[in-house]
């Protein structure tokens, strides 16, 4: 039997009622947090280590213990995110329709072209190193998260940043992933 506990139910069971935020607030705050580094270990502590050190198992006791151990962490993280949001606000005021059009064109046309050529270059290089053949995926295969095949083995090719992002994405790729990173003089990848 398979069971699923939804996040809302899990939070409710563990901590009681959780905060509900208006539409778009959480994704915007997540983005500001990511850019500001507000909840990185150097600010809020190494959470997995702290929760193991905490002598309490109940949520309220954990909360009180954490706030004693890291009394300034929540305020520091909040300040970093608020500063980043102000920066976002300054930038948002400068965004106009022409800039959005340029961004969309760059995403849809330029980055698609370069991205697909990266994929083929990476597939070719891996196949050459292994002494195997490669091919690009068909549109039907791409819909399944497959970018190509090396010696008949399906692979997906993703930027290094995908390692971090995949945890919050609903997309699940069930094939081998080759991660690449753009560098000043080309691309680096591992397979």
Can you give a write-up of this model?
With 191 residues, the chain is an alpha+beta fold. It folds into 2 domains: 7-94, no CATH class; 97-190, no CATH class. It is built from 9 helices and 5 strands. Strands 1-2-3-4-5 form a 5-stranded mixed sheet, covered by helices on one side. Helix 2 (25-36) crosses helix 6 (73-94). The chain starts with 6 loop residues before the first helix and ends with a strand. The mean pLDDT is 88.
Derived structural class: alpha+beta
> What spatial form do the alpha-carbon principal axes imply?
extended
Tally of individual helices: 9
Low-confidence stretches: none
Overall helicity: 55-70%
Structural domains: how many = 2
The main sheet orders its strands as: 1-2-3-4-5
Radius of gyration: 22 Å
> How many runs of DSSP E, i.e. beta strands?
5
Largest sheet: 5 strands, mixed
Report the average pLDDT across residues: 88
Q: Span from first to last CA? A: 35 Å
Q: What is the N-to-C succession of helices and strands?
A: HHHHHHHEHEEHEE
Strand content: 5-15%
Helix and strand arrangement:
Layout: H1 7-15, H2 25-36, H3 41-44, H4 47-53, H5 59-69, H6 73-94, H7 97-130, E1 134-136, H8 139-142, E2 148-150, E3 153-159, H9 162-165, E4 176-183, E5 186-190
Tags for this model:
191 residues, alpha+beta, single chain, five-stranded mixed β-sheet
Compact summary:
By secondary structure, the chain is of the alpha+beta class.
